[in-house]
Amino acid sequence: MGLTGAGKSTFINKYCRKDVMTVNHGLESCTRKMDFTVIVLPEDHPALPGRRLVLVDTPGFDDTDKSEHETLRRICTWLAHTYDAGTKVTGLVYLHSVGQSRMTRSARLSYDLFHAICGENAFRKVVMATTQWDTTLLNPAAGEIREKDLKTKWWKEPLAQGALYKRIQEPEEDIKSAIEHLLKGHAVATRVQKELVDEDKRVVETEAGKKLVATLQSWVIDSEIQELSPEKEEELKGSGFSADGHFWDGVKAIFRRNKNRKSSNFVLSKNVD
């Protein structure tokens, strides 16, 4: 997970050593729905020999085409679908470009929602990583200052509760190290999975849903925010989870239909948004 352009698709491609995800170097978002690739770990793998590894690429909460509400819905649907089928999360990777000169509103919202989706109990299976260190070659000190701010301020809580920090500077080596770290130990259920499936909550009732609603409402009424376009302001005022009940009732039937299904029978589908 991470903002558009943080390097999520590139991260997966580097680990797989081939282009399995589309990378867009333009201004528009490339990953617009949950996408994934499946690889089989080698038989001599120290932790999970011969097991399937599913790498999931998520859209950013600053997607150029989808609202933040729709992006959260898609991520929640995926996580609830897999958890309801008996599959937990082996690990989560959050990416942030060290080339960003400041913590923008979108970057803060993206991290806050990631925090709410995971929950404190899942942080031990999280890697918080910085990317695009090549953008700071002309000013290495700037990258190190931003990294320190992330580790000591913005990401302080997850790192204190077991998350691993990783600087993705030598991509193939660092990305492999991050994934191998997550493959150790038992899989976990994230907070939003438990909320949606075990507690039968709607998306808007989850911690992530409530955080999103509160944040977007604050953007609308904050007189200091000058960068909202008229179109974006109308979207924030008029959108939301008004159709959330209908949406969730529809997908819940799918989740519950095969509640007793074993995880070994679960087949991932790229049609899951």
Structure description:
GO terms for molecular function: GTP binding. InterPro entries: GTP-bd, P-loop_NTPase. Residues 1-72 form the G domain. This is G domain-containing protein. It comes from Candolleomyces eurysporus. By secondary structure, the chain is mainly alpha-helical. Helices cover 44% and strands 10% of the residues. It has 10 helices and 5 strands. The strands form 2 sheets. The protein has a 3-stranded parallel β-sheet, with helices on both faces. The chain has a two-stranded antiparallel ribbon with strand order 1-2. α1 crosses α6 (171-183). The chain starts with 7 loop residues before the first helix and ends in a 16-residue tail after the last helix. Mean pLDDT is 83; it is low at 25-31 and 242-268.
